[in-house]
Amino acid sequence: MALRIVNLGVDIATPTGKLMLNVLGGVAKFEREMMLERHREGIAKAKSGGAYKGRKPTARAKADEVKALAATGLSMSTIATQLGIGKGSVHRALSAKEA
C-alpha cells in the first residue's frame, strides 16, 4: 500500500516519490518555523513598545464589588450578571474573602 498524490504525480512507492514527499514536508516545516519566528518577533516588538500587555484581569479588579454585593445577600449568578464576570470568578473572589 502506498500514498499516491495524483495531482502532483507523486507516488511514495518510488524513490522519487519519497524524495518529493520529504522535500514538501521540509518546506512545510520551514515555513511553519518562519511563521512562528515572525510571530515571536512581533510580540517582542509590541512588548518593548508597551502595546502588548495581555488581557486585563477584570474579575480580580472587581473583587471588592463582589464582596460588597455578596454582603447584601445577592446570589452568585446575580452578582456575576451585574458585574459582567463569570460565576467562577465570583466564587473565587468570595473564597478569597474567607482565606
Automatic annotation (TrEMBL):
The organism's lineage is:
Bacteria, Pseudomonadati, Pseudomonadota, Alphaproteobacteria, Hyphomicrobiales
Q: Which PROSITE patterns match?
A: RECOMBINASES_3
The segment(s) forming the Resolvase/invertase-type recombinase catalytic domain are 1-50
Q: Which Pfam families match?
A: Resolvase
Q: Which InterPro entries match?
A: Resolv_N, Resolvase-like_N_sf
Name used for this protein in its record: DNA invertase Pin-like site-specific DNA recombinase
SUPFAM superfamilies documented for this protein = Resolvase-like (SSF53041)
Q: Which Gene3D superfamilies match?
A: Homeodomain-like, Resolvase, N-terminal catalytic domain
